[in-house]
Amino acid sequence: MASSKKTRRLLIFFGALVVVGLGVFVWIARQPSPERGQQRGGGRFGLGAPMAVNVATAATGEVPILLSALGTITPLATVTIKTQISGQLQQLAFTEGQMVDSGQFLAQIDPRPYENALSQAEGVLARDEAQLRNVQRDVERYAGLAAQQQVSEQQLATTKALAEQLAGTVATDKAQVSSARLNLTYAHITAPVSGRAGLRQVDLGNYVTPGDVNGIVVITQLQPISAIFPIPEDNVPALMRRVHSGDALRVEAYDRSNTTLLASGTLKTVDNQLDTTTGTLKLRAAFDNKDEQLFPNQFVNIRLLLDTLHDQVIVPAAAIQKGTVDGKATSFVYLVDAADSTVSVRAVSVGTADGERVAITNGIGAGDVVVTEGGDRLRDGARVQLPDAPAQQTTSGVGGPRGAGGFGSGGDGSRRGNRRNGGNGNGSGSAPSGGQGPPGSGPPGGGQGRRRPGGGSSNGETG
Predict the structure, then answer these.
(1) Phi and psi, residue 78, nearest 5°
(2) How many CA atoms lie within 13 A of 454 on its CB side?
(3) Cβ–Cβ < 8 Å for 263, 253
(4) For site-directed labelling of 447, which of 77, 162, 344, 435 has its Cα 20 to 30 A away?
(5) C-beta neighbour count of 248 within 10 angstroms
(6) Beta bridge partners of 103
(7) Could you tell me if 288 and 263 are in contact, meaning their C-beta atoms sit under 8 angstroms apart?
(8) Distance of alpha carbon 414 from alpha carbon 393, whole angstroms
(9) Where are the domains of the chain?
(10) Which residues, including other chains, have CB under 8 Å from residue 417's CB and lie 6 or more apart?
(11) Rounded to 10 degrees, what is the CA torsion of 278, 284, 285, 287?
């Protein structure tokens, strides 16, 4: 009885030892090796393989300094064609949407009443001129007779006054004639500016007056055309320096999506005061608009070329990373060493950006290779796989090809040696039914590889 109890205690004790031993083995097997821990940042999935990245070479070039703004297309002239006299609209000499030139005939008002008024005014003028000439001859006669004391001085003075009165009447008559001729001219309506005629506001046969609000038609000048846009007051000093230098500043107008270039022009004028509500200054740019891509009241994205920086080191914007370098928050890039395919963290000073290009003022030079994609999983000193380089074998020995009867023995033996003893052994083995797997590789370490299914085995060589 005592013997059976003793045997039961021994079995329980040895069973507990086995459980503890298995637990320790599993815990050790799950610990990464030091080499893999160092390379986890550079290998995909933390297995020590070089990280595939895309790279770009820093180059020297020009970077434009652009001011972006939202603008509205504004015509240089918009004219509502109205009649200056009253009358029946007899003729329209334009079609809706037609491009008209300055001075081109547009419409005709019934001229007959004004022709009659002109004839009447000319008749009155002729009558008064005849009377004036008669009185002027009387003044000459009376002046001679007064010298001979045959007429009184009073009669001479009265005749002179009458002549002056008639001279004033003649001047009034001439003004009436000019007014009648002007009204007759107003009956023939012409375009004051060149531009596009809009939709007509009145039809033939209507009686039009100067008081009509809508007029006959609206003409809008399209060539050239302008855009009004604001810039922040912080950019005004730099802008005024360029304006005072006499340089023509280039302005580009893009569509609503800011992708399609509509027209290119130049800056024409600057407003004389800042808008205190928005803290901006309004500018006007002019465009030839030969292809009529710009229309009045159209919304556009404006890019004003303020200056151009020369001989700048330029990299893609995707290469710029944000983080802490040497305890300071800064911008940095991953600089690629082509000799050993590793990267190093390099702090840089970012200058002017031009779309997807960024100027670097300090930190790297032209010809340096930087990482543009895949940098989110890199660390200082990590190995990388360049786009034009052949694929490299992992340092952990994982990935050996399977034989017909088992796993690739060398790679797996190395991995098991890693997990058991903290080092990578140079494993070698064979599968009875299959092919030979590639040998695992890694730093020397100790450990006996465990047999795999299918008969393959790996012997870890102690360092």
Answers:
(1) -130, 115
(2) 19
(3) yes
(4) 435
(5) 11
(6) none
(7) yes
(8) 14
(9) 31-49+393-463, 52-76+221-391, 82-218
(10) 423, 424, 425, 427, 440, 445, 446, 447, 448, 449, 458, 460
(11) 120
| Cα gap 224→250, rounded to integer Å | 16
Superfamily for domain range 52-76+221-391: Efflux pump adaptor protein, beta barrel domain (2.40.30.170)
Tokens of residue 211, six digits: 């008081």
Task: Please give the chain's pLDDT, 463 residues, in tens.
Answer: 556 777 777 778 878 888 888 888 877 777 654 444 444 444 444 446 788 889 999 999 998 989 999 999 999 999 999 999 999 999 999 999 999 999 999 999 999 999 999 999 999 999 999 999 998 888 888 888 877 777 788 888 888 899 899 999 999 999 999 999 999 999 999 999 999 999 999 999 999 999 999 999 999 999 999 999 999 999 999 999 999 988 899 999 999 999 999 999 999 999 999 999 999 999 999 999 999 999 999 999 999 999 888 999 999 999 999 888 888 888 999 999 888 889 999 999 998 888 889 999 998 999 999 999 988 888 888 888 888 755 554 444 333 343 433 433 334 433 333 433 444 434 333 333 333 333 333 433 433 334 343 444 444 333 3
Amino acid identity, residue 359? A
What is d(CA 341, CA 369) in angstroms, rounded to the nearest whole number?
Answer: 11
| CATH topology classification for 82-218 | OB fold (Dihydrolipoamide Acetyltransferase, E2P) (2.40.50)
DSSP letter assigned to residue 383: B
Angstrom distance (rounded) from CA 228 to CA 280:
12
Q: Phi and psi for 162 in degrees, rounded to 5?
A: -65, -35
Total residues belonging to the chain: 463
Q: Name the amino acid, one letter, at 423.
A: G
- Rg (C-alpha) for the chain, rounded Å, is 49
Residue with tokens 């556009």: 300
Contact by Cβ (8 Å): 107, 189: yes
Closest listed residue to residue 343, CA positions, set 44, 51, 15: 51
